[in-house]
Specification:
This protein has 191 residues and is an all-alpha fold. The chain has 10 helices and no strands. The protein has helices at residues 6-27, 33-40, 44-50, 54-79, 84-95, 98-102, 109-119, 125-141, 153-169, 174-189. The longest helix is centred in the middle third of the chain and has 26 residues, at 54-79. The termini are far apart. The model has no long low-confidence stretch (mean pLDDT 91). It holds the Pfam family TetR_N. Residues 10-69 form the HTH tetR-type domain. InterPro entries: Homeodomain-like_sf, HTH_TetR, Tet_transcr_reg_TetR-rel_C_sf. Residues 32-51 bind DNA. One of its GO terms (molecular function) is DNA binding.
Length: 191
């Protein structure tokens, strides 16, 4: 079999990172390289032509997931003509939806990757990327008059995160949707 072109190699790498980002959010970073490459439609051996290690892929996939989140938030703000309050409300509506609860692969990396990042070593790039992503998300959620993410944004993010994780853990019981509704009410009725 011949060598792949540079363009094809870049496309393959992009596909692996995208696939890993989705699988890690859905199943955790313990997904095997073999399963990941199979899901990407590539051979196990191709992995080592693209990445130095699985940890390097975890770092890159984490950054990719947070880049997707930032693009989604920017699109939401644009869709609401720069009206921060309306964009935040739409984000809360989407975040606390049954669809988001049921679709971790395309969902928020804050909730999906928290445990894996917490269990990883402190010096890892994924941990730094995660911390920056959390801070950026909290800043987006902060009230317009707030100076920084700490003024309301972190509390809102904690409510969103906690509700999503608890609703996923109780999925299949009536409590799951009650959690989403309670968090939604707490975030939207207060302001």
């Amino acid at each position: 079999m011949g060598r792949v072109s540079q363009a094809q190699a870049e496309e393959n790498r992009r596909r692996v990172v995208d696939t890993a980002s989705r699988l890690f959010r859905e199943q955790g970073t313990h997904v095997s390289v073999a399963d990941l490459m199979k899901a990407a439609g590539l051979t196990h051996g191709a992995f080592y032509k693209q990445f130095a290690s699985k940890e390097a892929l975890v770092d890159e996939a984490t950054a990719h997931a947070f880049d997707e989140l930032a693009r989604c938030h920017a699109a939401e703000l644009e869709r609401h003509d720069g009206q921060r309050d309306a964009a935040q409300r739409a984000l809360i509506d989407t975040y606390l939806s049954v669809e988001h609860r049921d679709n971790a692969a395309d969902g928020c990396p804050v909730a999906a990757l928290a445990i894996d990042v917490a269990r990883g070593p402190e010096g890892r790039e994924a941990r730094r990327t995660y911390a920056e992503g959390v801070a950026d998300f909290a800043a987006l959620l902060a009230p317009a008059e707030a100076v920084g993410a700490g003024e309301g944004g972190l509390a809102r993010l904690c409510t969103l995160f906690g509700a999503l994780v608890l609703s996923r853990a109780t999925q299949g019981s009536p409590l799951s949707e009650e959690i989403l509704a309670a968090a939604h009410a707490a975030l939207t009725e207060a302001g």
